[in-house]
Amino acid sequence: MSLNDFAQPVHETMITQFLTATAAARVMLKQGSGVILSLTATPGGIGYPQVGGFGPACCAIESLSRNLASELGPHA
User: Fold this and answer.
1) CB 3.0 to 4.6 Å from 51: which of 18, 43, 59, 71, for a disulfide?
2) What's the rounded Cα separation, in Å, for the pair 25 and 63?
3) pTM for this prediction
């Protein structure tokens, strides 16, 4: 597997998640509440063969969700 084949899903996923979550967070902060729901797949929680960068991308989504909760939670 090339570096690009591994890194592209992680890169694209995190850009998409970041842009979507920050747009939602702006609205949530104005209204004082809200929920950002992120869905991932099995490779994000356990080792799974032949998924390339998809498994790490799922892990990154879960980590971003935890960090956003800690950042936004106090404002709810």
Assistant:
1) 43
2) 16
3) 0.85
